[in-house]
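User: My collaborator sent over this chain with a note saying "see what the structure looks like." That's all I know about it. Can you take a look?
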Amino acid sequence: MASVRIREAEEGDCGDILRMIRELADNENLLDQVKISEEALRADGFGDNPSFHCVVAEILPPHSEPQEPRVVGYGLYYFIYSTWKGRSVYLEDVYVMPEYRSGA
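Assistant: Without extra context I'll predict from the sequence alone. Here is the result:
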């Protein structure tokens, strides 16, 4: 049985993140509104002063299988500041590919 690992996203995950952003938008019939590119995700999320942070969920195949882990979900968030509450976190998206969801 495969295991799931949640980890901080890396620059090399941007292609998978963009794929899932498009899947989420398509599910909401808003695919035409996605204007972000893989290059913009890299520049905005992985420089010295990132505009967002991201975690990914990946499926780890059993040790007996030579496959690479597969990114199947993401959570994208950023910090905001409220004059009433101080520092807060805004969770922009949480997405898991439909075939990897359970109990829905």
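A starting point for your reply to your collaborator: Strands lie at 3-8, 53-60, 70-82, 86-96.
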